[in-house]
Recover the amino acids of this structure.
């Protein structure tokens, strides 16, 4: 059988920037079964609460694809935020991603915003 | 020649592992572009196919050697028919399932027709149709 892409995980870029007690985690590319672990890794590295980060804003606007395994990670991160007593907000993505959140009812579980500036200061540093 | 073969849009088979899901999904997405289906419908098709492929990569070969997952898409009579086939253990319940149980429900909601079969009790075939 033919080989699959050697670098499937490269189809997602995750960039985290912090400003005071808020971290903006911006996703670009495809969030799926293979790439979703990157999100967990980056948020784990932020060590919310332990490092003073109290608010995490997960920005989906740069995603070109998202599936059910990705939804599972959003739910997991939401549960982690509750148990760890930090805040998680999700910036809405493109229309297909909004549709996925609505059809599955996951949008009811999350704090969703249209723009990260609705929640956080406009200037971010790496 | 079979009339379905006349309108074949995409066909590929890869090992049923997670890395194959994106490869097949992107291949189908690229193949759909000349059909000018529309952005929303294309996104639905790609999501449905991705969920079916994900199911195969996660569930099909549990407790047995890894085998293939095949994806075919063809246009016939104004519909796009997409089939995802594996040679795994068939549709068996898993008490240890890592999924949310949302995948099949989502597939059913976004397609115009859905058929799931396990021919001869071996493997699973998911066929979905989209009216174009």
């Amino acid at each position: 059988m033919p080989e699959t892409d050697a670098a499937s995980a490269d189809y997602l870029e995750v960039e985290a920037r912090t400003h005071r007690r808020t971290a903006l985690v911006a996703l670009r590319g495809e969030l799926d079964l293979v790439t979703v672990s990157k999100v967990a890794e980056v948020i784990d590295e932020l060590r919310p609460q332990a490092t003073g980060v109290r608010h995490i804003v997960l920005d989906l606007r740069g995603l070109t694809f998202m599936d059910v395994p990705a939804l599972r990670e959003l739910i997991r991160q939401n549960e982690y935020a509750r148990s760890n007593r930090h805040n998680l907000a999700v910036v809405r993505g493109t229309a297909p991603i909004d549709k996925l959140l609505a059809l599955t009812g996951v949008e009811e579980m999350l704090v969703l915003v249209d723009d990260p500036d609705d929640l956080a200061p406009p200037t971010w540093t790496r | 020649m079979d009339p379905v073969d006349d309108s074949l849009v995409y066909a590929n088979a890869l090992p049923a592992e997670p890395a194959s899901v994106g490869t097949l999904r992107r291949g189908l997405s690229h193949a759909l572009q000349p059909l000018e289906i529309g952005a929303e419908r294309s996104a639905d098709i790609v999501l449905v196919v991705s969920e079916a492929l994900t199911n195969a990569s996660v569930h099909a070969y549990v407790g047995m050697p890894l085998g293939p997952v095949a994806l075919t898409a063809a246009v016939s009579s104004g519909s796009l028919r997409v089939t995802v086939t594996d040679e795994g253990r068939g549709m068996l319940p898993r008490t240890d399932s890592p999924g949310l149980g949302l995948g099949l429900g989502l597939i059913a909601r976004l397609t115009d027709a859905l058929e799931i079969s396990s021919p001869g009790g071996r493997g699973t075939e998911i066929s979905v149709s989209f009216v174009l």
The interface with chain B takes residues 1-2, 4-5, 8, 11, 30, 32-35, 65, 67-69, 71-72, 75, 95-96, 99-100, 103-104 of chain A (CB under 8 Å). Residues 11-118 of chain A form a domain with the Transcription Regulator spoIIAA fold (CATH 3.30.750.24). The radius of gyration of chain A is 14 Å. Strands of chain A lie at 12-19, 22-31, 55-66, 87-91, 112-113.
